[in-house]
Design brief:
Two copies of one chain form a homodimer. Chain A has about 260 residues and is of the alpha+beta class. Chain A contains nine helices and ten strands. Chain A has two domains: about 70 residues, Arc Repressor Mutant, subunit A (Orthogonal Bundle), CATH 1.10.10; about 170 residues, Chorismate lyase-like (Chorismate lyase). In chain A, helix 2 crosses helix 3.
Chain lengths: ~260, ~260
């Protein structure tokens, strides 16, 4: 919901029409896949000029509620239920039950998850990552790059970076499948007991390679999330850099009203 | 940093050029406001075709590192340091010191903050808000809508919604300035002791009214953040709906690796 809705009496006509159509889509009166009434129909229905109708329809396109196909008209987008990401996905009990975070989370969202491992091997730490790991930029670290899918659609790409001295004695994390509970379970088995995670969340437009990797439309937004895994000794033993299709996720956080 | 950087040997030429120029911008070799070398200069420097150079420059524009002005060329954007938002901004000690959350946070970012109150008064709760407050959609609640600026530039709009039975005996929250520590301080003084906050984070393209309110370019992304303030009794006493210019903020969270 736009914060502009508070003072609706002062809202431009085209925005009122867009809001009316959006309400029909959200209520299901205009169902996923349904064709949006034509420009001529909307002109008649709302008694406005064609420019006003066109601006209203453009608003719905921006809100990703409809898709327009040249010569065929506009259609209500099928909106897959978004996947919620909460801090709970890193609960130790999930790891002990043998579930990696993504699977634990995707189970709750109703989609069928899958993962493709794109790369596992040594790489030079990029500046921001090195900084978070407390290493000079370019230091060799282990990179693990994966692409995640829901119902066969790519939704995010994540690259984990781990310090070499941490992983060199943990052969499982060099494998495509690091085993039950994922790399956090392996780190903890090898004495790197995790105390907390930090996440930094940004949003921006997708770059060309991201557009391709996640099959996004040009100009689509992504969420860029960087997570540090921190041990009880205060060491960052993993930085995970994730690019997510913005329309596929809601990130949920919970924190105390502390002193 | 794009996650596509891991396997750089397989990267298309135009992306290598874009990465090289981005590195110069990030290092300061190409300073804010500096003109980006012309197409002819880049063709000669990198020994590539004009189409390749044009794609590289388009990539930098998407990454919001440069701005192109017709007939004048491309310039390195002056990047105001982004404002970091951490859960710490809600510390009770900040409230007791008389600081509202935004001011506590903005102080750390180096910018000069200011606030305009756009609306304070009764409104019908929109569906998502009503749902979070545990009220039927359309129930009358108190809305407080503000626009926040940093160094005079609008960065976010936030609307707080509070249940009528909670606020009717707290005259201060009907005032433009609810006093030291903001509305959370007033709620706590009136017995609504806050236990925790939840935040839901999404990203999408700005709607037309948001583009106007925050003076964004068409097609710019926004972060949409919805926060619930929850009392020790488990009641949601405020929902705050915020639209933020995506290029102005980093949201920081911290959570335990709990069982």
């Amino acid at each position: 919901m736009a914060s502009g809705e508070v003072a609706s009496s002062a809202t431009a006509k085209y925005l009122q029409i867009a809001a009316d159509l959006a309400a029909q889509i959200k209520s299901g009166a205009l169902a996923p896949g349904a064709i949006v009434p034509s420009e001529a129909e909307l002109i008649q229905r709302y008694g406005v000029a064609s420019g006003t109708v066109r601006k209203a329809v453009a608003e719905l396109r921006t809100a990703q509620l409809i898709e327009t196909y040249h010569g065929r008209g506009s259609f209500v987008r099928s909106r897959p239920p978004v996947q919620r990401k909460s801090a709970d996905r890193f609960r130790r009990t999930h790891r002990q039950a043998g579930k990696a975070a993504y699977l634990a989370e995707a189970e709750a969202s109703g989609g069928v998850p899958s993962v493709t491992v794109l790369f596992v091997g040594p790489t030079a730490a990029p500046p921001e990552i090195a900084d978070r790991l407390g290493l000079p930029a370019g230091t060799q670290v282990l990179a693990r790059k994966r692409r995640y899918f829901r119902d066969g659609v790519p939704t995010e790409e994540a690259t984990s970076y781990l310090p070499w001295d941490v992983v060199k004695d943990i052969p499982e994390v060099f494998a495509e499948n690091p085993g039950g509970g994922g790399i956090y379970a392996r780190l903890e088995e090898h004495g790197h007991s995790l105390a907390e995670f930090t996440e930094s969340v940004r949003a921006r437009l997708a770059t060309k390679p991201e557009t391709k990797a996640l099959t996004l439309s040009p100009g689509a937004p992504v969420i860029h999330l960087v997570r540090d895994a921190i041990t009880t000794d205060g060491r960052v033993v993993e930085v995970c850099d994730t690019i997510m299709a913005a329309d596929q996720f809601v990130l949920d956080y919970r924190f105390p009203a502390r002193d």
